[in-house]
Amino acid sequence: MALAGTQLSERDRKEFNLMGMEKLGAFTAAYNAMAWASLASSQTLAMQMWLAWCTPWMGNRGANRLAQQMQQAAVSILSKGLAPAHAKATANARRLAATPLVAAPRRRTRA
Predict the structure, then answer these.
(1) pLDDT classification of 111: cutoffs 50, 70, 90
(2) Higher pLDDT, 5 or 42
(3) I need a labelling partner for 33 at 20 to 30 A (CA). Which of 5, 8, 40, 51 fits?
(4) 73: how many CB neighbours lie within 10 A of its CB?
């Protein structure tokens, strides 16, 4: 991006447009993945809360298990959200590493 300068070539315009569309797609996929993971986790956590509430004779074991599952759910939701953005970023890095750099055109200066 820094080599593009202020005057963008057609190649740079296409690349920046592609980058914007890819980011939009990646974050849409990330949001969708996080929403589905959140839905699944909330159902699991609701069941664990119900079990902990219905079995008070289990003592702290039910509460400890619930706390552990809440922590695992948070990590799972975040990892599912980061996966599409990470995949797109690494694919872009590989693609751009193979693209030859073109030096920005030099401006003429008047003497």
Answers:
(1) low
(2) 42
(3) 51
(4) 18
Q: Which residues, in sequence order, are CB contacts of 18 under 8 Å at separation 6+?
A: none
For residue 77 the two structure tokens come to: 């939701």
Name the one residue in this structure whose structure tokens are 């990330």: 30
Q: Is the pTM of this model over 0.70?
A: no
67 phi and psi angles, rounded to 5 deg: -65, -40
What does pLDDT average to over the chain?
A: 82
Residue 31, token pair as written in the block: 């949001």
- Joined together, the tokens standing for residue 50 give 């119900």
Q: Rounded CA gap, 110 and 105, in Å?
A: 16
Question: Under 8 Å CB-to-CB from 56, ≥6 apart: which residues?
Answer: none
Torsional class of 5: left (φ above 0), alpha (ψ -120 to 50), beta (otherwise) = left
Three-class SS state of 9: coil
Per residue in 4-33, pLDDT (tens digit) is: 667 778 887 888 888 889 889 989 999 999
